[in-house]
Every structure is written in structure tokens, then in C-alpha cells.
Amino acid sequence: MRRPALCFRALIACLPFLLSVDAARAADWSDALQRAVEGIDRESPGRLGLYIKRLNGGEAFSYGADRFWYLGSTAKVPIAIATLQAVDAGRLKLSDTRKLEPTDRIEAGQLVWRPVGTPMTIDFLLNRMLVDSDNTAATMLVRIVGEDRVNESARAAMGADRVKRLTSLAQVRYDVYAEIHPDARKLTNDQLVRVASAPLGPQRVEAVRRALGVPASALQARTIDEAYARYYKQGANSATLVAYGGMLEKLVRGDLLSPQSTQRIFKDMKIDIFTNYRLQAGLPRSVRFIHKTGTQYRTACHSGVMNPENGGRDAIVVVACAADLDEQKEAGKVFERVGRAITDNVLQAKAQRP
């Protein structure tokens, strides 16, 4: 009887050492990642934010993650969650059909070109919204679920004080163009689509002016930079990276959706597809990754979870956003470098952990 007692005492005596070793390893990867991210931020245009959490140990990394960042199309994940919560609650079925309405149509994506009245299932809309990032599909789902319900769900998942109001993608266009002239809110969706065919820059401002039929002297914002800067200051469709990461953590732990709906959203978030794009371009091809990108004028995000299965037992949450840079040409390179830094400093550290 004495030997087990002695072994137990020895184990208790070793616990502080074992805990200190784990803490040191966590500090090692966090410090190394901090240096890498600071270098990327310093050498890249604009501003960078990053949040990472390893769910098996609870260690988290934060770099500008407590400030609000514009989400762009990564806001489609909370829209999908709210939709699937309605399915889980029996308020909707994936097989339910809804017709395309004139106020749903907005670029970008293919559904904008379908005739008004075209029937589409909830299942189809979810897939198009997440896989193709179709804005018309997202606007339809916000209408079907209800914008208030979408926001209630988002606040519950992220924290009421850490996410601003989420809107439809059509509303984003109205809010931006209203900074150019307030009558832009009177434009039809067909007019919004035609305006969007003009390149961003002076041509887009001129397209808004022509659609409204007002003189140039009546414009309140003379450049698209000014219009978007004013819109971003309003704070809509933004959240802290910590809050968004918390939502992803709850998703993979099974706290937000039924098991069936959780697997459904994993599939539409491309768990079986290697895109070689943004963060994923810097990650090993073998790492399973659910994710969503977001892109809008001079802002970009890429967020997801590596190894999300098994209730998130071995999952790593990653939320990255950037601002004040070319959202296409520059953002991809920045996020790829962040992905490589995660591979070198987080995944390798995890592999070395006993």
C-alpha cells in the first residue's frame, strides 16, 4: 500500500515542473510568432491583425486582435450559423424554397443574373454563399432568417459588445454610396448592379452621380476612398478578432449547431479542398482547414479552424485581418506569409509537444 502512495506523492511533486514546462513551451511559440508577425506587419503595407488559439491547451496569441476589424465576407459565417440554427430549431428546412426578389440582387456572384422569381432552396443558398461567396445568396438568407435574428445569434456567439451590427451585402452598398450622396439609398438593386460595373475609383463615383442624376457639386464625398473611409468609421459589419475566434471555437466544439449542421457547415467551408490561397497557401497541404475569406475595398480577412473535427480537440483557431492595403494584390501575399509563420511557429511547436 505504501508504493502507490509514494508514486502519487512523487507525481504531485513533479506537477509544478510539468506545468512550468508547458508554460515555457507556450511562451516559446508565442514569442517566436510575435517576432514573425511584427516582421510581416513592418514589411507589408497597411495594418495587420491576428488571433490564434490552440484549443487543446488553451494558449492564445493576440496581435491587434482586440480592436474592431471590418469582416467583409467572413460575416457570411455568422449568417450561415443563424440559418442553420433556424433549421435545427425547426423554423426552416434545407429543402424549403424561396424566390429571388428584386431587392435581393447584388453583385458579386452568379445568382445576381438569375431572373426575379427564380426559386432556390435554403440548402443551395447556403452552399453558394459559403463556397462561392455569392452576395445575392447572403442577402436572401438575411432576409429569410431576419436581420435581427442574425444579429442576435452573432451577439450570443461573439459577445454583445464585441461585434457591431451585421447587415445584408446590399445594405453595405447603400451605406457606402450614401456617403457620396444621401439619395443613393433610393437606388434600385438593378441600379446598384450597374453602378458596380464601373471600376472602383473615380469611375465608380461618376457612376453613382449619373445614376442619381445630380451635379458633381452636390456630391458629399468626391472620392471612393473618402466614401469607404466614412463608411468604415460607422463600424457596421465589424468585430474584434478575439470575438470572431470565440465564435469559431464554439462552432467546432459543437456549442452552436447540431452535429449534422456542424458537419454541413464544415463541408461548405471547404474542409476537403486545398485552395492554395491566402493563409492556406502558407499551410501544409495535409492540414484540414475550414475557412472563409473576406474582401472589400482596402480591407481583407481570412479566418478558420485547422483540424476542426472531434469537437475541436486538436483544433487551432486562426483569425487574420488587414486594412489600408490593396485587398487583392497585396493582401494575398501578406496572409500567405502569416500562414507560413503559423506553420513554422505553431504547427511545428505542436508537433514537438509530447
Number of strands: 9
Assembly state here? single chain
CATH class of the largest domain: Alpha Beta
Sheet-strand content, in percent, reads 5-15%
Percent of residues in helical segments?
Answer: 40-55%
Query: Largest sheet, if any?
Result: 5 strands, antiparallel
Q: What structural class do you assign from the helix and strand content? A: alpha+beta
Task: Write the CATH fold name of the largest domain.
Answer: Beta-lactamase
What sequence of helices (H) and strands (E) makes up the elements? HEEEHEEHHHHHHHEHHEEHEH
Strand order of the largest sheet: 2-1-9-8-7
**Number of helical segments with 4 or more residues:** 13
Which stretches of 5+ consecutive residues score pLDDT under 50? 17-23
Instruction: Quote the average pLDDT.
Output: 92
Question: Can you give a write-up of this model?
Answer:
With 354 residues, this protein is α+β, with helices and mostly antiparallel strands. The protein has helices at 2-43, 76-88, 122-131, 135-145, 147-158, 169-178, 189-196, 202-212, 224-234, 241-253, 259-268, 309-312, 331-352, and strands spanning 47-54, 60-63, 68-70, 97-99, 119-121, 238-240, 289-296, 299-306, 316-323. The chain has two domains: 30-74 and 238-352, Beta-lactamase; 79-234, no CATH class. Strand 1 and strand 2 (60-63) form a beta hairpin. Helix 2 (76-88) packs antiparallel against helix 3 (122-131) and helix 4 (135-145) crosses helix 5. The protein is globular and about 80 Å long.
